[in-house]
Predict the 3D structure of the following.
Amino acid sequence: MITVIGTGTGSPLPPDTEAELATATLVVGARRHLTAARLPDTTERIVLGPLPPALDAIEQHLKEPADHTAQRRVVVLASGDPGFFGIVRALADRFGARTLDVRPAVSSVATAFARLGLTWDDAIVVSAHGRDPRTAVNVCLAHPKVAVLTGPGAGPAELGAALRSQSPERVLVVASALGSGPDERVERVTPAEAAARDWGPAVSVVLCLDESRTLSSVRTIAGPPAGPAQWALDEGEFTHRDSMISKFEVRALALARLGPRLGDHVWDIGAGSGSVAVECARLGAAVTAVEKSGDGVERVRANAAAHGVDVTVVRGVAPAVLSELPDPDAVFIGGGGRELPAIVADCARRARRAVVVAMAALDRVPAAREALLAAGFGCDGVLLQSSRLAPLPGDVTRLAATNPVFLLWGVRLPARTEGVAQ
């Protein structure tokens, strides 16, 4: 009943479209698609804008009785591949996938990578069209090859403004009017250059690249890299100073409570070796590590490089330096001293989902817990005491105790609904 035709990245309609349009009783599409279709005056048409009214109109049209010569036939014209972040999802949800005859064309993402001579089976594609752009920004910070589908308020300028301070070495490739011949533009710019321009409405897609890592080995699975084979790595996997590193038992529970994932932004406060920051990045999140010492900053960077991940490292003292950072989804606090209650309070005020605090001093637990509760978090914690197998002479082993650590975590509670109707 509904034929969905992808028009590709250019303005001309596909060659086989004419026959479908000749028998259509309703054609839905953008104004430029309807103009290119040159429909008879008798054909009903809908200029595609907000989806709900268009879907309602299609449903009403299909319910109307057809005359004796033809049944109701709807044709939807859509840019690129309509099954890739396109209208197919909304149509299938409303009318069922079996009612659709989808004829895809080449997407803007595939075309943009083709213009650069790059494969894109290893790229991550994220849509910022009609969505909060922060997810796209976080993905661009964490991964070397990302395609961003843009929209009003979430275009190259906004993307560049978010990246210029955190990842200025990234290259943004802005592809505009793809497939339109002389009007097509594919431009390489820095985030700062992107932020300074008005790009207009013709942007098709923005690629965010770490050009030192855009070529990968042969892939078996498309999309983002597979998750790490293991996590909570041994302390020996990281460079650290005087055993100043979160033990893997503590790190395992901290990671479980932080829940870092693709599209998230995680803070690691008092990063030390950066072991928590690196592990969050290995699990797909964008990570900002805050460390006050110069040698600590270099140590975090070295550990991130050794594990092949991107971590933004900020030298400074919390909580003062936190005002310069974009809001996080989750926060790990591994240092703080006397400032710990203030750090926890500031992090809890801004974190969207969770705050995890590791403390060796039991005296600091009540104030940290109170700060989490005051910010509207549910709070829980555990004292971690572990003993590891250690060799003894004579080919025997003993249990060697590690230093106990108190792990406290807060999870933001849903906002209460006042005045619920009875």
